[in-house]
TrEMBL record:
This is Thioesterase family protein. Residues 1-22 are annotated as: Disordered. It holds the Pfam family 4HBT_2. CDD domains: 4HBT. InterPro entries: HotDog_dom_sf (IPR029069).
């Protein structure tokens, strides 16, 4: 069973692993595929499928893998900078059962000097069926002030390169949706 508590709280499977070296000449996959995992027994609820909160846990692990891909790790955070998630929209499309393989993708939809708009898709690792999606807005933060901060030049350049590679992808169907009850126009 994965120990979710570290000395500072919840940990991810990537914590303690340094980021990879950035190769500016390497082809950037579109979308990125940086994380996969089976559905753990502790993620399964009383309905015998993965609990809704665990989908977010897995998307968070996928984000941590993405951060390591671009150069963000414990050393980066020790410098006083990090990303915070400020908004998340999850679409639950299909059930995931204990032991089933999950394969995740990561797409950078938009970017400015302080924010990243990302989209993640969770697929069944065997059938390829789309199980869930997460659309998120991330803000780059100065940990000392607790306020948004511009991305350092090198990191911003890496993210721009990923954004350029991902600009060729279609906008996912679930991106940009709002929550609400759809009613005919003449219904109060």
């Amino acid at each position: 069973m994965r120990d979710l508590q570290g000395p500072h709280g919840v940990i991810t499977p990537y914590e303690g692993n340094p980021h990879r070296d950035w190769d500016s000449d390497a082809t950037i996959p579109a979308p990125l595929r940086v994380h996969q995992t089976p559905v753990k027994p502790e993620w399964v609820d009383y309905n015998k499928h993965m609990s809704e909160s665990c989908y977010l846990l897995v998307f968070g692990d996928n984000s941590d893998a993405f951060f390591r891909y671009v150069g963000i790790d414990e050393a980066y955070r020790a410098s006083g900078l990090s990303f915070y998630t400020v908004e998340t929209h999850i679409h639950y499309l299909r059930e995931a059962m204990e032991g089933e393989p999950l394969r995740l993708s990561y797409q950078l939809l938009d970017l400015d000097r302080k924010r990243a708009h990302v989209f993640q898709a969770m697929h069944h690792g065997g059938s390829g069926a789309l199980l869930a999606t997460a659309e998120q807005l991330l803000v780059h933060v100065d940990l000392h002030t607790g306020r948004s901060a511009p991305l350092p030049g090198e990191l911003y350049e890496r993210l721009l390169a990923i954004r350029a590679a991902h600009a060729l992808l279609p906008t996912p169907e679930q991106a940009g949706h709002t929550i609400g009850i759809r009613r005919p126009r003449d219904t109060p």
